[in-house]
Amino acid sequence: MAIIGIDLGTTNSIVTAFQNGACVLIPNQHGEYLTPSVVGLDERGALLVGKLAKERLITAPHLTTALFKRNMGTKTKAQLGTKSFLPEELSSFVLRQLIEDAKRFLDAPIEEVVISVPAYFDAKQRAATKRAGFLAGAKVERLVNEPSAAAIACKQEGEDDTFLIFDFGGGTLDVSIVEVFDNVVNICAIAGDNRLGGREFDHVIFEAICAENQIDRNALSRQERETLLRLAEQAKTELQNRQEVQIKGTIQNRTVEMHLTDETLANLSGEIFARIKRPIQAAINDSGLQASDISRCILVGGSCHMKIVQEFLSLLLRVPVQPGKDMDHVVAEGLGIFVGIKQRDSEVRDMVLTDICPFSLNTGVYNAANPNKTLAQTMIPRNSILPRRVTESLCTVDLGQTEINVTVTQGEQMYEEENTLLGSLTIRVPKNMKEHEHIEITFYYDINAILVVNVRVVSTGAEHSLVLTGDGLELSGKELEHALRELQNMKFRSFHNQRFAFLQERAKRIYAEGNTALQAHMLQLIIELEQLERTGIIGGIRKQNAILDEFEAYLEQMEATLDNPDIFQDFSEFTFGEDSDD
Ligand code: ADP
Ligand code: MG
To answer: Counting Cβ atoms within 10 Å, is residue 330 exposed (0-12), middle (13-18) or buried (19+)?
Structure first.
């Protein structure tokens, strides 16, 4: 039985384990570590997850969805054909796929899954993540904050250190301040922005393409929008290896173009950078440290590949800005080490990871100035080190009052109604004079982000308690069991050959994005592929692989002609004929 860790990302997800004293990243069926967090259904209703589904964002947008982690904890459903799914249901499909990959790779049943979440995920988002695990049929005891996982991975052997971790992914930014001494990795403060990531750069580029080419973005179809966003993302990524990029594509049979440099992108992104600054400031302030105590800034997440992001951080922090080992894998690597700690592997057994509570937990208190607006009194301030226990007393406010309503909220606002309500208890107290009946409220917040609230009536000794695991917030056990059965009935598409199926989707996507001339060129190929799908590729594995290599290289060339439609005439047509025999 194995324990695995899953970095369930907005854009990409990775699965890891801990073996022979080290973290191992587990490849998917394409032999890659990153599995795109994209989910779709095929025309027969079978599930698709990963890079094949990603191609279908363009060719079958009504059956495919991505970026659902951004809606985690909300009721926002994605429509896939006739079915609709909650974010945690979509996430459960990604988890199921990764668990399958892990089972195959480790050749062992999976006993438990540890999932990483952005530090800034609130109770609802965490609960939804746990539900996703449950719906994937996995036991999830523990969620680990992504920056905490990154911190374990970046701890350098035997060195005391204080550093800032800047985790900038596709949809979220997390900033954390970390202290390392002896075997302890201490998270001092975290702050972040749940809706700020690489995608924001894609959007500003997208807007600029529309403006420069006089495209009315409201008149774009979903597919055209996806195509432009993909072009924008591609240009942003290419810019990291080049001085300038010429964006070129076809929309509504018209060529659209734009010239992009770091400077233009920086100019377009003023607002994004202003937003990046806020959590950095907040984390430093909350840590109680000076900016000068921080020795380095560690880059994590795909968006840290951007030169303008790195330059911005260097100027702002005035410390060395370094990629964490491998920006795309750091969280997963830390998660793997965490799995090792959990397995009590001798290599990492003595390592201690502290964690903190990313938001304040409050209880409501009477507001004499305005009885209709209850105040939120902070019991456990944000960034407290876990576990934490706090006790406060409250008293009755009216003559003969027999009930006190104890509420639990999460958030930083002064008034209770502006924070998220997690639960409440109604406590009966004996009739007495105003302010003569007292209750003691204790909050105990443990390392798994489970809050136990205990209330004791001082005069009678009666005790009441409430356990908020976040789990039961929205769905009752019965509904969850029902959802589990429904989802488990949905099967993944089975493949004769994964790679062939992927290349076929890719060919269709290139067709969809090409202009009329390129489409004519691709059509014959796609028909031939469909025939081949029915008959199967003839020959042994080696011959099949050789054909697929050749085919992939051909598609790469076709992909390049998307950016530059004038050069496609130079290519001869590709055929899966005898000519590929040696
Ligand atoms: P998440 O943790 O949200 O799943 P990742 O850490 O995988 O996200 O980062 C994905 C983001 O990184 C995407 O917005 C992607 O465009 C961006 N990205 C990946 N590689 C590069 C690159 N070379 N240059 C610029 N941005 C990149
Ligand atoms: Mg990430």
So the answer is: buried
Contact 375, 387 (CB under 8 A): no
Cβ–ligand 1 distance for 198 under 6 Å, the answer yes
- Specify whether the CB–CB gap between 317 and 345 falls below 8 A: no
Instruction: Give start and end residues of each alpha helix (H) in 498-540.
Output: 498-513, 516-535
CA–CA distance, 23 with 1 (Å, rounded to integer): 17
Q: Which of 194, 196, 237 should be mutated for ligand 1, with most atoms under 8 A from CB?
A: 237
Q: Which residues contact 76 (CB under 8 A, 6 or more apart)?
A: 86, 87
Per-residue pLDDT tens over the stretch 523-579: 888 888 888 878 776 677 788 888 888 889 988 888 877 766 666 555 566 776 544
In this structure, the strands spanning 110-117 and 2-8 are parallel
Judged by DSSP in three states, 189 sits in: strand
C-alpha of 90 from chain center: 12
For residues 47 and 56, the answer to whether their CB atoms sit within 8 Å is no
Write out pLDDT tens, residues 154-172: 887 667 899 999 999 988 8
Q: Is the CB of 171 under 6 A from ligand 1?
A: yes
pLDDT of residue 226: 87
The values of phi and psi at residue 483, to 5°, are -60, -40
Long-range pairs of 378-382 with CB within 8 A, sequence gap ≥ 24: 379/441, 379/443, 380/443, 380/445, 382/286, 382/357, 382/358, 382/412
The pLDDT assigned to 579 comes to 46
What separation, in Å, do the N-terminal and C-terminal C-alpha atoms of the chain show?
46
What pTM does this model have? 0.84
Is residue 175 within 8 A of residue 165, CB to CB? The reply is yes
Contact (CB, 8 A) for 52 and 74:
no
The number of the ligand nearest the C-alpha atom of 310 reads 1
Closest CA to 126 of 357, 363, 449, 474: 449
Is the shortest distance between the CB of 279 and ligand 1 below 6 Å? no
Q: Which two tokens stand for residue 450?
A: 């489970």
Tell me if 11 CB under 6 Å of ligand 1. Answer: yes
Q: Which residue has the tokens 């509420």?
A: 407
Pairwise CA distance, residues 274 & 280, whole Å:
11
Going through 50-160 in order, the beta strands assigned E by DSSP cover 64-66, 78-80, 83-85, 110-117, 143-145
Tell me the pLDDT tens digit for each residue of 396-455: 999 999 999 999 999 999 999 999 888 899 999 999 998 999 999 999 988 766 788 999
Q: Which ligand is nearest to the CA of 116?
A: 2
pLDDT tens digits, one per residue of 324-379: 778 899 999 999 999 998 888 877 777 777 788 888 999 999 999 999 999 999 99
Atom of ligand 1 nearest to the CA of 199: 14
Cβ-Cβ contacts under 8 Å for 306 (sequence gap 6 or more)? 198, 201, 236, 239, 240
- Cα Rg of the chain (Å, integer): 27
Is the CB of 36 inside a 6 Å radius of any atom of ligand 1? no
Residue 343 CB-half CA count within 13 A: 26
Q: Provide the token pair at 42.
A: 């095929």
